[in-house]
Amino acid sequence: MSKTSAEIASQPEVWAKAAEVAKQTGPLAADEESVAVIGCGTSWFIAQAYTRMREVNGKGISDAFTATEFPLDREYDRVVCLSRSGTTSEIIDVMKHLHEAGRPAILITAVGEGPAAPYAEREVVLDFADEESVVQTRFATSALAYMRSTLGDDIAPAIEDAKKALEVELKQSWIDATQISFLGTGWTIGLANEAGLKLREASQSWTETYPAMEYRHGPISIAEPGRLVWIFGEVPHGMVDQINETGAEIHASELDPMADLVIAQRLAVARAEAKGLDPDHPRHLSRSVILDDEE
What we know:
Blueprint: H1 3-9, H2 11-25, E1 35-39, H3 42-56, E2 62-66, E3 78-82, H4 89-100, E4 105-109, E5 120-125, H5 138-150, H6 156-165, H7 172-176, E6 180-184, H8 188-203, E7 207-211, E8 228-231, H9 239-246, E9 249-252, H10 257-274
Parallel strand pairs: 1-2, 1-3, 3-4, 4-5, 6-7, 6-8, 8-9
Helix pairs in contact: 2-5, 2-6, 3-5, 3-8, 6-10, 8-10
């Protein structure tokens, strides 16, 4: 079993631990406070999911940014930075700037007391969710489990669904699909973005990601037999019929969308192995992006 597969399989257990941490730390921000969440790559997509969920739940203005595009002069009541390693150069740069401006951020990480820590208002360390693999799986979902829990969301059903997700049969047609489109609505758009990234990273698959309703405005043109459309969460009315007409296969699960992401993670590994690739060592990638000072 690859390291990535073992880490995927551990998610029900680590999600439960993340929920316990949320009970200890309490909310990341008070209701009605404005919040920005910053991350790079996978962390950015997890930020998208959390901020959309927070705003829909009426907790206040909530925005997600990749670190290089964060508007440094925009005022938020709280800024949260998400970094598995705590060493990502772009995250450290933003946190340093905010600290110097008297607006330090909260850091959520798997590795405490790293180079970003001196600039943090406080650290939330999910060290039990850290990973050896390059491709993020359990840290990302555990961070989201923690963030969902801080909103008062009971993730116990999601944990049970994740156990089921580990047993779902991966269809051969999914492994062989020539192209996969991941779709979502609301907070699951972030999960769709993350699923697409996971398949690209681990298995070099051709994936595209869209808000579900946006898929009809052009992207559906690539749907055809042998391709797969994967929909996280609620399926918009009429979409199944439209996709069926193209001949593409549809996957839509009744499991919690975060558990459905677990299935997509497993698919990324299966497709990598089917191609003779090593999911633990994706090409051109490292565990953390650390840039030279002149960059």
